[in-house]
Amino acid sequence: MPASTARSRSERPENPGELIRGRRLARGWTLADLGARTGYSASQVSRYERGLSSLSGIGVLRRFADVLDIPPKDFGLTAASPPAQNRHGYPVAPGLTYPRLPGPSTATVLVVTV
After folding, report:
1. Positive or negative CA dihedral for 71, 74, 80, 82?
2. Residue 90, beta-bridge partner list
3. Cα separation of 45 and 36, whole Å?
4. What one-character DSSP code corresponds to residue 19?
5. 42 φ, ψ to 5°?
6. Chunked in runs of 10, what are the mean pLDDT values of the chain (114 residues)?
7. Which residue, 81, 83, 47, 87, is CA-closest to 64?
8. What is the pLDDT of residue 113?
9. I need a labelling partner for 79 at 20 to 30 A (CA). Which of 3, 37, 60, 114 fits?
């Protein structure tokens, strides 16, 4: 390999797949090991590492970052955003979730026949 295209080991990988592969190998994990920890198949992890499948989804990148202890900034992500302080123009307490609709009721139906 020509010296101009060779990278030293201290350089940052060019793409997220290389970073994921490097961390996986440093831990001694197989593709199946990483797949089991992230919820992907070994073949899908391999496609991500080789760049055959896009690693542009934030959820996918965060999953790999969490499992491999990669700082999110290495993937170009920011830290998890804080919860919104306002919703629809009104202040909301931290941790308060949106209200959910009630589930279906099992009320007794009275049928009258004439």
Report:
1. positive
2. 87
3. 10
4. H
5. -60, -40
6. 45 78 95 94 94 88 91 80 60 60 65 77
7. 47
8. 79
9. 37
